[in-house]
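hey can u run this one w/ nickel (II) ion bound, need the structure tokens asap thx
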Amino acid sequence: MIESIRFGISMDRKLLKEFDRLIEHMGYTNRSEAIRDLIRERLIQEEWEVTRQETAGTITIVYSHETRELTETLTALQHSYFKHIISTMHVHLDEHNCLEVLIVKGRANILKKIADRLLSTRGVKHGKLTTTTTGKAVS
Ligand code: NI
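ok here u go:
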């Protein structure tokens, strides 16, 4: 079991009041969990921006499968990164539009490159890289 340590934080009243208002709005029932999540978020940001360790994320793209050669281009791109794309889900949103979610794992710079290449492909209407973590560096 991971040991928990209690520690005190000093801050001015106004800042604490604003923090309490924010976390209540977000649905937190106590400050400790909110502060832990803030620290985790910052650690994950560092995992993506600074360290070169393995991380994880998802890439979401929306496109029309009727756009000429787009499906082939996207598939070829995904095959060239097969080591980093560990799973994909394809949903037919309507008669024309497709939504794809790719789960990616690897070094941040490579994952960003995969996202950039997919999102910049002509015909991709929307896309987003969501950064998360393998969980190893965050408890
Ligand atoms: Ni489709």
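The chain has four helices and four strands. anyway lmk if its weird
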